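ok so for the tutorial part 2 we go from a plain amino acid sequence to predicted structure tokens. step 1 is just haveing the sequence, like this:
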Amino acid sequence: MTLGVNYTVDESCAGMCDGIVDFNYQNGTGAVSMTFSPQAFPTQFGTTYYGLCPTVYTVTATDAVGCTQTTTVTINPAIPLSLALTPGNATCGQCNGSIAATAIGGFPMYTYLLQPGNITAQPPFNNLCPGNYIVNVTDAMGCNSSATAVVGNGPLLSGVTVTNTTYNESCYLSGDGGIDITVTPAGSYSYLWSNGDTTEDLSNAISGSYWVIVTNGGACQQYNYTIGVTGINCGTIAGNAWIDSSNACIQNAGDWPNPSAKIQLSTGAIAFTNSQGDYQFNQVPLGTHTLSKTNVWWMSGYQEALTCPQGNMVTLTNNVLNNHFIDSSLNIADYSIWAYSQNYVPGDTTRIKIYPYRSYLLTPAQGIVSLVLNDSLNHLYSFPAPTSVNTTPNGDSLTWIMSIPSWSGYSWLNPPIEVFVGTPTNYTLGPVLSSTLQITPIALSDPFLSNNTYTVSRPIASSYDPNEKYVSPRGEGPQGKITKQDTLLEYTVVFQNTGTAPARNIRILDTLSSKLDLSTLWVREVVITTRHKCGMGIFLIFILKIFTCQTVPTMNHSVMVLSHIPSNKNSNAIGDVIQNSASIYFDYNAPIKTNTTINTLAHPTSVTDLTQRNGISIFPQPAVSTVNIRSTGSTLREIRLYDFQGRILQKQEVFSSSSAYQLDLQMFHPEFICWIFRLKTERNANRW
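step 2 — the prediction. this is what the tokens look like for a chain of 688 residues:
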């Protein structure tokens, strides 16, 4: 009976004891039982054992007739995850403490959780009140670790009493409020108010919340106060803002309100008009005040008439409730234009969407929209049809005379002008094609010209094919010397679409040497369904479509492999050279020629042992469920599989004399899309 280890999986998190081992035993009689030393009782499913703690095990397999075989299994421990916390004390009784947290070990990236508070953020944690806290960290493998920290209080004032008298301001923003504090016993105290004052008492203050920090030596304490509004000798100023179509200071039906306008009082108070154009100031001190209005940006084109029936100077003796702002509806409009296009693909039709719109003017208005296409683009058709089309050497020029919709939310987005253009088939990947748009008002004035033009620029998107071709057996030296006993030659073409658009029409023209027997040709592996034909020494492959790496993140449909095997003719003589190359056609691109493989028929010599050629093949590429590993010239002894972060996922010792091995990938989570192999052969040569 033979006993081997197919693979092992190390412990995932410290203390989990979740290691895995899968055995390969052959030629035993009946059922085979496994015993572990040191003693362990893992869960068994077939030949796989789960729940092993990290250590080195001696494992004995015993079959039904008592035959035994022994091997060793190593389950490595997980890197322990721990957490180092550094708290910072709060000062003066405030919530200004902190906790710095550093994860140690485990697998980055780390996520943190602070309790109480259920705060998920990257450390440090700031603005913490004094108290006890728990920080939990989780690494990329889902392992957890927790630690506690205490945020203390800095030295507080002791034996000190602070009393206060608060004076509310008479009206809102009158600035005659204050706070008078008295500290006992007397001493050398310093003061810091939340508004920056450093006096003992606060004066000339407006209503609101304040704090003061009283410090004596190294001790301090914070005290909080609120100043209100008495409302004596105050009044209200209120009104409305609208677009006055009649300029009569009367809001008629159909006059639009002026929303979101900023109204500012000379006291510093600020209000904004609501959706109906209303604004209001309360608790305004009696007296004379100045008001001003600033329109929101999309209303800035209207000519403003100051408040009516009064001007912008308001004398407040009680309440002023009808102080209005009106804007004249002038014969102006702000015309704007914007466009969007997808990438241009040679031989394809691309749609350009054009969005003209205007602001300020409420009634329908005419405008002229013009588009000058890049001279490389061909106008095919448009919706709606242009008023005129002019073909020039500098590009097709299209013009629409049309009603330009008013901007209202985003209703102007539908429907756009749609222009369909064609891209010549002789264009290649990369260049950016720009077309220019312009909008012009008819019978109106547009004071804002910066948004009257727009350039829509998009690159040429196309497929692109990096490739490689190789032959097996490769042969010795630059001539690729092989013997006449090497009857089968396996040619493999690996190619990939690394462009910016899918490759839809693909041809592979593979030129086979006349020294190969075409009647023996067979296709070993093609990732995508193909059809082929042979004749006149040419092997032709048609492949329908492959996507780009960008459109298929796992790259399973971006990398293609083609293998075909013809026979070496018996009539070939020593010294004959057998060459092979292929040309790959992607869509309208020029063909990309592969490297040329060379084999030369030669006699074996005592200098070079042709049976000991060294080489390692891993296929298919890409691999989904299984991967085949083949070593030429040296027997495999150990296979290690890593993920893209360098973590070992599987370790497999190979005990047979075979030079080929198949590895099962289905047990791993589909997030592992990039594999790294480390292979050891009987010659102790490592290869990644």
